Automatic annotation (TrEMBL):
<protein>
    <submittedName>
        <fullName>ABC-2 type transport system ATP-binding protein</fullName>
    </submittedName>
</protein>
<keyword id="KW-0813">Transport</keyword>
<dbReference type="InterPro" id="IPR027417">
    <property type="entry name" value="P-loop_NTPase"/>
</dbReference>
<dbReference type="InterPro" id="IPR003439">
    <property type="entry name" value="ABC_transporter-like_ATP-bd"/>
</dbReference>
<dbReference type="InterPro" id="IPR017871">
    <property type="entry name" value="ABC_transporter-like_CS"/>
</dbReference>
<dbReference type="GO" id="GO:0016887">
    <property type="term" value="F:ATP hydrolysis activity"/>
</dbReference>
<keyword id="KW-0547">Nucleotide-binding</keyword>
<dbReference type="GO" id="GO:0005524">
    <property type="term" value="F:ATP binding"/>
</dbReference>
<feature type="domain" description="ABC transporter">
    <location>
        <begin position="6"/>
        <end position="235"/>
    </location>
</feature>
<dbReference type="InterPro" id="IPR050763">
    <property type="entry name" value="ABC_transporter_ATP-binding"/>
</dbReference>
<dbReference type="InterPro" id="IPR003593">
    <property type="entry name" value="AAA+_ATPase"/>
</dbReference>
<dbReference type="Pfam" id="PF00005">
    <property type="entry name" value="ABC_tran"/>
</dbReference>
<keyword id="KW-0067">ATP-binding</keyword>
């Protein structure tokens, strides 16, 4: 079994006020995977990232970066990690090239203009390399933040809400870049409020709430296990309540009496739909339209946070 890119053991963060931002988090992240960490504001996502990246001191617990203790081998660990934080932390009076190149120098690496050029080209920043940062748009500044994080060629990249506040076009470009990095073997851990991005991009998903990691699952397996399908039947005539003949399927009736909703497991050998439709026909209940909806990762996430999914 290969060594995880990142091994988090019993990581806890408590403040003098008694608030526990993290409650003994355990997590292994495999080399080369894209891991999405989801959770509401204040759940502990940024605290977890900040501890791993050496910006915040943990109350207890440890992190192994490619098998090495992140405090005993601090410089080596930081060299392997790149971070794109939520907040902009760049000198707005510096040119793009200088800002990115300086980030590489901070890690004691030799000058490599070819690498810096490639990073800027990958992020569509090459034409802006001489521009002063304050003259760039918010989206371009976000690209510079990513370029800074990639300047020292990290093996592990943290993206903390990387597409917050950027337009759709830039978001797509960023995810294309993430895929390219993964192809090069970079391990990527991202937090995002755009859950559809996690659904599209991630290999595995972790859900954190109130400092606790409440679920870690392969995305495809999570969707398979928890993903429901819903059948909506638009009725030809309104019903006042669900007839006894349909009670076995436990359908829900809309307030206006015109829609029946039936939840089913799409992976079950028998979904119950044919028998439900036959029972409706026998009861003289006609419908004029039907459609099905697959529950998304967002539905599952909301259910986990609010205790509706076990």
């Amino acid at each position: 079994m290969s060594t995880p890119a990142l091994s988090i053991r019993g990581l806890r963060k408590a403040y003098a006020s008694g608030t526990e931002a993290l409650k003994s988090v355990d997590l292994d992240i495999a080399s080369g995977e894209i891991f999405a960490l989801l959770g509401p504001n204040g759940a502990g996502k940024t605290t977890l990232i900040s501890i791993v990246c050496g910006l915040v001191r943990a109350t207890s617990g440890e992190v192994l970066v490619e098998g090495k203790h992140w405090l005993n081998d601090y410089k080596g660990a930081r060299r392997r990690i790149g971070l794109v934080p939520q907040e902009m932390n760049i000198d707005v009076f510096e040119p793009v090239w200088n800002t990115v190149a300086f980030s590489r120098e901070l890690f004691g690496l030799p000058r490599n203009d070819a690498h810096i050029e490639q990073v800027l080209r990958d992020l569509t920043l090459w034409d802006k390399r001489k521009n002063i940062l304050k003259d760039l748009s918010g989206g371009m500044k976000r690209r510079v933040m990513i370029a800074k994080a990639l300047a020292h060629e990290p093996d592990i990249l943290f993206l903390d809400e990387p597409t917050a506040g950027v337009d759709v076009e830039l978001r797509k470009e960023m995810w294309a870049m993430v895929r390219l990095l993964r192809e090069k073997g970079v391990t990527i851990i991202l937090t995002t409020h755009y859950i559809e991005e996690a659904e599209e991009m991630a290999d595995r998903v972790g859900v954190i709430n109130k400092g606790e990691l409440i679920l870690v699952e392969e995305k495809a397996e999570l969707m398979k296990k928890l993903g429901r399908k819903t059948l909506h039947l638009q009725l030809a005539e309104p019903l006042s309540d669900v007839p006894p003949a349909l009670q076995d399927w436990k359908p829900r009736l809309s307030d206006d009496g015109l829609t029946l909703t039936y939840d089913f497991d799409r992976h079950a050998e028998r979904t119950g739909i044919p028998s439900l439709l036959a029972a409706m026909r026998d009861a003289g209940i006609a419908f004029k339209d039907l459609d099905t909806k697959q529950s998304s990762l967002e539905d599952i996430f909301v259910g986990l946070i609010h205790g509706g999914v076990k």
